[in-house]
Specification:
The structure is a homodimer. With about 325 residues, the first copy, chain A, is an alpha/beta fold. Chain A contains 13 helices and twelve strands. The first copy, chain A, folds into two domains: about 150 residues, Rossmann fold; about 160 residues, Dihydrodipicolinate Reductase, domain 2, CATH 3.30.360. In chain A, strand 1, helix 1 and strand 2 form a beta-alpha-beta unit. Chains A, B: Its EC number is 1.1.1.3.
């Protein structure tokens, strides 16, 4: 398949680097700085080198990438809230041209799901977005496999940064501030960690899951969200005395959508440590399924993007 | 899709009961005792009632089911070794008629994989067999998602009966014989438990995984197999002293295929308890993925069968 990739951050770069291994060709790469387009395949190494040295992927106008020849638009620009731009607009243009759309960007499916599905219905193109929930973990394809109506609830640890902080606080008895600084040093937390530690990222993933399970109608505003910023170390100590620990758990069920710190059994399935994620599915006929793995990272998320591209190819 | 279901054991019965929920129609059900065929859909309730009371699904010759009108043949007769009959023959007849084949029966893909793929290549029909490994756990679809070449090894607890016995021995300090008798009372182990406790079932699943990962060439004979029958309770006690436990672990890697009791960390990911299964994937670009869930059971396995049927429908 020919891919036009939007976004040259960690995920976009990994997608263009790995696409060839999966038998696909990158015919365009664009970000806010510029674009490079070549219908026979861009020079991946040279383009990424230029991005690293000059800060731009190429001299082209990003619009030329949207108008170029491709089968699938891969949207990997940063997640934005509210209008979910520019990601939403890229997806809209691709659908208008009857192309498929694969999202790594959570914004369009968390904030404007119903509009996006309406655009998909009017298009020959299809929408997939496995990479938006749980990185390398096959969350959405498992829901498709088991059958949407057969999944009664989904919960899980969906943010690796928050989980790193909480599991270090629990095992080392350190304060939130101490562990956060450590996480920032290690590159696990960003300079402004709000998106992760306030629960926004986990809640966006839950809004996406709710849209998938209940056929749309959800945005971030529908989620009950609380973060881990004000969680005292003493809460973790108290929990540990009785064999419990605390994790930031996202949950989607007919009772609602939430992302908040929860008490869970210390050796239980949900108590993954470090930056790992875990997703737990309650099903009607297949019991409980648990999937854990790396929930973030360029190559991990790119693997989910390329799984979607391969799926589109098989279902063509 | 129209389904012709072969086998009226726990899995076959669940498939015919749940097919309607997934939007499919059962047009034939056959087992060694007879067959019922109705191109507009069999009367599921009446057929299963008759099977329960008279021991037969219907007066028809099973051959009439093979020759009937259907889109997908679902093979759920008991797994047999060596020639893998009658399952293999059913699949061959379906492919000769250009129909799709979905297996719950492990025999044909563990013992005669290369022949089956050759028949598939000559046919318009396609072969899927998610239900043969890990029941409700989406093992093969995860390999497809991640990309076969990207998966470097798979290991896991693949037999619920053996795992029930080992985890009870470890937690209760009971002998193998004691726990086995208990498992038989609970219906977790069969009267003749050899297939499970000798590692054969886990090894068949590993042979199937090896065929998928390495594009064929494997049978049960290629696996190093040892069971749990002679494992003394003292081995589990010794292991526990150092924080380890023992599980029957199946493993597939470029180094070979095996199913044998292994020492694993007591609180580690592989140490699932009771009849649960877990599958661990090592991948090149997506790190380690773990999926746990119910590895057996009629409804659980039927869910995997029906996921395959839906996949065939999407990819048509």
């Amino acid at each position: 398949m020919k891919l036009a990739v939007f976004g040259a951050g960690a995920v976009g770069r990994s997608v263009v680097e790995l696409a060839g291994e999966y038998g696909h060709t990158v015919t365009a790469l664009a970000d806010s700085s510029g674009a490079v387009v070549d219908s026979s395949g861009i020079d991946v190494a040279a383009t990424l080198e230029r991005k690293a040295s000059d800060g731009t992927v190429g001299d082209g106008d990003p619009q030329t990438a949207l108008e170029s020849e491709y089968d699938v638009l891969v949207e990997a620009t940063p997640t934005t809230l509210g209008d979910a731009q520019p990601g939403f607009g890229h997806a809209r243009e691709a659908f208008a041209r009857d192309r498929d759309v694969v999202l790594a960007n959570k914004g369009p499916v968390a904030e404007r799901y119903d509009e996006l599905r309406a655009l998909e219905r009017e298009s020959e193109g299809s929408l997939l977005f496995e990479a938006t929930v749980g990185g390398a973990i096959p969350v959405l394809s498992t829901i498709t496999d088991v059958g949407t109506e057969n999944v009664t609830a989904v919960r899980g640890v969906l943010n690796g940064t928050a989980n790193f902080v909480l599991s270090r606080m629990a095992t080392e008895g350190l304060s939130y501030e101490h562990v956060l600084a450590e996480a920032q040093d290690l590159g696990v937390a960003e300079a402004d960690p709000s998106f992760d530690v306030d629960g926004t990222d986990a809640a966006l993933k839950c809004a996406i899951l709710a849209n998938v399970l209940f056929d749309g109608g959800y945005t971030l505003a529908d989620a009950d969200v609380s973060g881990i910023r004000d969680l005292p170390g003493s809460a973790l100590e108290l929990a540990a005395e009785d064999g419990w620990t605390i994790r930031l758990v996202g949950e989607v069920s007919p009772n609602g959508v939430s992302a908040a710190p929860r008490l869970i059994p210390e050796n239980g399935t949900l108590a993954v440590s470090g930056t790992r994620n875990i997703v737990q599915f309650e099903t009607q006929h297949a019991g409980q399924l648990n999937i854990s793995g790396r929930g973030a990272g360029g190559d991990e998320t790119a693997t989910a993007v390329l799984a979607d591209v391969s799926r589109l190819e098989r279902e063509m």
